[in-house]
């Protein structure tokens, strides 16, 4: 086939696609586009149909539940039924997923019946697929107040420059007839501020060169050593405009976007950290649970799947809401009341079975330490008493020793005075 070629006869066959033999006419291209656009519209309709089947019953059920909880609900009143229908439609079409599916369907249909440009807008679907792109868009509209204030300052500054150009004869000449009245002079100044390198001053300078200097240089009216003539008004006007508008105020806009994006990125990282490293139910950190359950293989995975499974709590809340109130137990009545109030105190905040076991072990260890400390204090008390008794006995023995020594001393002295007496 002519479609495939051999790149190197000495090497293996490497099939390469050649478009030389392919002749695509405009009619064939249009037919291919129409087939793909029609397929896109059919798939979008199918997706939107499934959204209707999935979301519409839920939207209408929530609408009628809201009406039943209203104070002026009267049962089978026709007015409330109609109100429930409109409220259900509002709930359905205000859902983000429904609006997205409907928008895709409308764009695909417009691409078939109107212009193919509408189908190109479907590529923006990639924005909602990647959260980082959503952060980029949020960084554009989040600081909208700051954008508005800076834009107001830019407009006032451009108006002042345009007003000066309108009043000055030399500047009006530079504007080449675009400054005969104040309004077009201001619009011209504002317009070419964003379209030209260096702002409006850069545009006027380039226009002056293209209209005068280059043409005269081509005709030979300017020599190479002709001195450059600098107009002070033009110099000050162009550089002030470029510095104030292009280099200062516009950069403030860029700084606002960067600051908002950095803030959103930090919030996203914080949410990811909380989602990945903290239990959604009890709020304990992953490392704490891993350390507490390391001895029994009951760490983070066991805790989030068995002890505090998020879906188990979701199903329990759905069970409470679907169960008749007359069949509630005491615990279920209390939990239902707290759910209605938005109170999450029934959640085991900062509590977990594995942490309770660790706490019990810690309490037992603390009790053992306290018992040992009490016994140590008792032994210390007994030892102090023994030491006091020993000191007392030692004192008594010292007194008796002194008494015996004094008696012996008196006996020896009396014997020395009367030699006829015998020894004691």
Number of distinct helices:
16
Q: What's the rounded overall pLDDT mean?
A: 77
Span of the ends, CA to CA = 148 Å
Strand content: under 5%
What fraction, in percent, of the residue positions are helical? over 70%
Rg, Å, rounded = 47 Å
The secondary-structure element order is HHHHHHHHHHHHHHHH
Shape assignment: elongated
| Biggest sheet features | none
Counted beta strands: 0
Describe the structure.
By secondary structure, this protein is mainly α. It is built from 16 helices and no strands. The protein is elongated, with a radius of gyration of 47 Å.
Descriptive key words:
16 helices; mainly alpha; 424 residues; disordered N terminus; elongated
Short structural description:
This protein is mostly helical and 424 residues long. The chain has 16 helices and no strands.
Topology:
Layout: H1 26-69, H2 78-93, H3 96-113, H4 117-120, H5 125-129, H6 131-141, H7 144-167, H8 169-174, H9 182-195, H10 199-219, H11 232-277, H12 286-292, H13 300-307, H14 310-322, H15 330-341, H16 353-417
Helix pairs in contact: 1-2, 1-3, 6-11, 7-9, 7-11, 9-10, 10-11
